[in-house]
Specification:
- This protein is of the alpha/beta class and 509 residues long.
- 31% of the residues lie in helices and 25% in strands.
- The chain is built from 14 helices and 20 strands.
- Helix 9 links the parallel strand 12 and strand 13.
- Helix 2 runs antiparallel to helix 3 and helix 11 packs parallel to helix 12.
- Bound molecules: iron/sulfur cluster.
Length: 509
Amino acid sequence: MPQAFFESVLDLVIRTSTDLPPDVRAAMKVAMQLEQSGTQSSQALSIIAQNIDLAADCEGAICQDTGMPTFEVKTPVGANQIEMKKQIRGAVAEATKRGKLRPNSVDSLTGENSGNNLGPGTPIVHFEQWERDEIEVKLILKGGGCENMNAQYSLPMELAHLGRADRSLEGVRKCILHAVWHAQGKGCAPGAVGVCIGGDRTSGYVNAKEQLFRTLDDVNPDPRLAELEASIMGEVNKLGVGAMGFGGKVSLIGCKIGALNRLPASFFVSVAYDCWAYRRLGVVLDANTGAITRWLYRDAAQPVVHMADQSGFPRTGREVALRAPLTEEQVRSLKVGDVVLLSGRAYTGRDAVHHHLMKHDPPVDLRGGVIYHCGPVVAKDGANEGSGWRVTAAGPTTSIREEPYQADVIKRYGVRAVIGKGGMGAKTLAALREAGAVYLNAIGGAAQFYARTITSVDGVSLLEFGTPEAMWHLTIENFPAIVTMDSHGNSLHNDVEESSAHELAAFAK
Ligand code: SF4
């Protein structure tokens, strides 16, 4: 396989991670126009739009979670797939080295990060032969937050707020609505769903993910599925989940449905939920040279259309400026819905750090401190041990994973603010009230936007957990986030979940 194949795949990986395809941009533009300006959803979408522009301009990762690279490759009969797979793995490792992909491949038994996105099952590469004499490579990068929101239903079954879902297209419709409602903001809404009706548990999920390779504006060739897709898109936004689950008019930007035959005894509906950072692209290659002959999903000759009509955080004048370390009085004065611009020291901490803090004292003084649920992409400025670090992508990760630990961490170590996305549960809410702390929801996926609020990386602890899991000591300046859980027992997440459950119930027939 010629060197050009490696270069072409590397180009594809970098472009996919950094430049959102035109159909997704167009759908997000429509979402922005639908939200009323000044609302939290509208502010979130404005940050997302700027983030999309920043990522394309600087060729930086759109979201710090660059996801599970999944390649769908079609090859002419007789092409050497073994060699192609080697080159694809090499391109993934090279893109990781260049900071375009975050090291995301973790040994499931030891927790060790391979550091280069290679390992058993990573990346995912599917080959298929076709009768054409060219190679097609498609790639989707789907992050963990939205992957965790995938759902599989086995019909018939009872669904919360919707009643019985039968083995019928009406039952499928209920499953899809339920999946979108259940995701709330945790999958970084507004998202898109790929759905498979039928198959077995494994092929159903694979086919659901494959639906995400369709463009958002295509029409399903099966008129029954086309009608179902249109009906979902016509009604799903009445749920009111909104961007990031803040409540709002747009909860979903696309619904693509496929069907596989099933066993008579099974009827699965598999839903692959993708976030707004819906990164998928493709290339067609000359089978002899490996060079790109054309791009899929984008026209390389067309200039990138910018998304944002303003730069910086869209201020209303009601923002609360805070500087860490924070006092109990400052935190208790905050209420759900307040927008804060936070400055000072913040420490990143996600799964490994929270688990560690259950049995060990923190490596830094967390009194009055801010913990940021974030697994950043970090680059070393030089090769020396003493060289500095630079954060190149740093949006929030899904907070609910820390629910088993967060209350203890807050109470034991005096943490005053936790930044993340998607909200947390009852145990954390009780701890916020008891200890005087607050949960701040940042805009999921806005990795480039937030990286620019980090003025310096002042140190790192627990680097042995790998770059995304280490505790980075950051100085932030005017970091915007919304109070979605306060110290008075209020939670915007509970409110939106409840009101959207009410809307969901209206779809029960
Ligand atoms: S936008 Fe949100 S869900 Fe999507 S990859 Fe980024 S953090 Fe995960």
